[in-house]
Design goal:
alpha+beta, 19 strands, OB fold (Dihydrolipoamide Acetyltransferase, E2P), seven-stranded mixed sheet, about 400 residues, Chloramphenicol Acetyltransferase
């Protein structure tokens, strides 16, 4: 039998083979992984639908593979092989079928065009029209999920995430070699996914960034005091782990920062859970895995989980489920250098905290000037939901949380 690439999930029609795990002559079992496919930010295994002997391999690592394309030829022992699975683990949305929107991509999705007998454009709110205009998207090509074909921001987001040619993608190619020597390499699926998400956030979220500094001189002394004890427990005490504890507590005090805007219903959703995304710099690009229930974990637990999660992320071993469900994000660039920056909100979240490198600065304490270790903080937020006063109070409270971090939370 010929094994082909099955449907990948909502709106996903292709991926890149990052690993081919079988070769001609291999005897494989049913459900054994034959290739690992990268699509967007996830790498998922593609299982064999039957047992047998591999007689041909039709793809190589690095090949782009589309739904229905040949993967391997299998000599199935003992009769007719089982049919390929209808859907492999979802690479893009990860939602169960009952959770998928009415706008889920169909084979004819790219051919959809809105038509009104009166010639009127498709119904949509001004904010949706603005985002579509800035992204160069013809709203008539976006299938609306609401009554009368009304296009929502979720519909627009689903359209952007489909592998379709937009106006930007159709721009003419420039021959840069006319001015000198060049080298080329294909843009990875991950890089494309990051680009789409950042462009959508930039166009749809009126972002403001609030800056402040925190005096972490005492906090770093506390860290140094307990470093060895944490290492004996198999944990690494870092500034990020301190930040996780402080942020989880503040999100309870400032619930608007742990909310999301449901544009379809016009409601604010206040979440009673605290899942914090951690921006991880990998060789392939930025990936944001999510630490669950941060508020329920001790500093020791977080100090164990954080480096383990970061390592699996760099090795591209995180599951798709670990990239979803975040309520707030944190990006610590202190280890790389730099000071203040303007992180982009990871929609549908409404805020993200950026941390720079701590720097010794002269600071007035009482009547004296002393050298103190000052930490740059950058809080970007969705100004549709959060006002400047709320952001100022949040970042000020965060600075105080760093400066007055209780030793009782560090003791083992």
């Amino acid at each position: 039998m010929i094994v082909t690439l099955p449907r990948l999930g909502e709106g996903a029609e292709s991926g890149t083979a990052v690993n081919v795990l079988v070769k001609v002559g291999d005897v494989i079992k049913k459900d054994q992984t034959i290739i690992e496919l990268e699509n967007e930010k996830a790498v998922a295994p593609i299982p064999s639908p039957a047992a047998g002997t591999v007689t041909a391999v039709h793809v190589n690592a690095g090949d782009k593979v589309s739904v229905g394309q040949k993967l391997i030829t299998l000599d199935s022992a003992g009769g007719e092989a089982a049919a390929a699975p209808a859907v492999v683990p979802q690479l893009r949305s990860g939602r169960r079928p009952e959770q998928q929107s009415k706008n889920a991509a169909a084979p004819t999705a790219e051919d959809y065009v809105y038509h009104s007998p009166s010639g009127a454009p498709p119904p949509a709110s001004p904010s949706v029209r603005k985002v579509a205009r800035e992204l160069g998207i013809d709203l008539a090509r976006v299938r609306g999920s609401e009554a009368g074909g009304r296009v929502t921001m979720a519909d627009l987001r689903a359209y952007v995430q489909r592998p379709q040619r937009t106006a930007a993608a159709a721009a003419p190619s420039v021959d840069f070699s006319q001015w000198g020597p060049v080298t080329k390499k294909p843009v990875t699926s991950l890089r494309k996914a990051i680009g789409k998400q950042m462009a959508l956030s930039w166009a749809s979220v009126p972002r403001v960034t609030q800056f402040d500094e925190a005096d972490i001189t005492d906090l770093m002394a506390l860290k140094q005091k307990y470093d060895a004890a944490y290492e004996q427990k198999g944990a690494k005490l870092t500034l990020t782990s301190f930040a996780l504890v402080a942020v989880a507590e503040l999100l309870k005090q400032h619930p608007i920062f742990n909310a999301s805007l449901d544009e379809a219903s016009g409601e604010l959703v206040f979440k009673q859970y605290y899942h914090i995304g951690i921006a991880v710099d990998t060789e392939q690009g930025l990936i944001v895995p999510v630490l669950r229930d941060v508020d329920k974990k001790s500093l020791l637990q977080l100090s164990k989980e954080l480096p383990e999660l970061a390592e699996r992320t760099r090795a591209r071993k995180v599951a798709l489920e670990e990239l979803k469900g975040g309520t707030f994000s944190l990006s610590n660039q202190g280890g790389l250098g730099g000071s203040f920056f303007t992180p982009i909100v990871n929609i549908p979240e409404v805020a993200i905290l950026g941390i720079g490198r701590g720097v010794l600065k002269p600071a007035v304490r009482g009547q004296a000037v002393e050298p103190r270790l000052m930490l740059p903080l950058s809080l970007s937020y969705d100004h549709r939901i959060i006002d400047g006063g709320q952001a100022a109070r949040f970042i000020r409270d965060l600075s105080e949380a760093f400066e007055q971090f209780p030793e009782s939370k560090v003791k083992l």
